[in-house]
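Subject: Predicted fold for O(6)-alkylguanine repair protein YbaZ, 100 residues

User T.R. writes:
Posting the sequence so we have a shared reference for the thread.
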Amino acid sequence: MPRPELLEQIYTIVDQIPAGRVTTYGRIAKMTEGATARMVGSAMRHLPEGHQLPWHRVISASLKLADHGGAARQHEKLRAEGVAFDAKGRVPSHLVWPDE
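User M.O. replies:
I've generated the structure tokens; pasting them so everyone works from the same file.
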């Protein structure tokens, strides 16, 4: 698990991802003061009970959903926000936040 101050940074960033957009573990890591993509993934797996964070908007660098137990629910939540997936299960790059 990341240090508490990194967790706070990660959760603050995740909370800012707009509906209908996604970002990657790596992009979030680059916005922190020292987290790695793996740490961001760990933070997403260990979200506090009752949180309201849009965890479903965080995806892998391949723009596919990571293979985890919540992937089906994540896919549903993203589709409900209007996120489309291509034939290979990727999210279109123009939906990646923040814009570069």
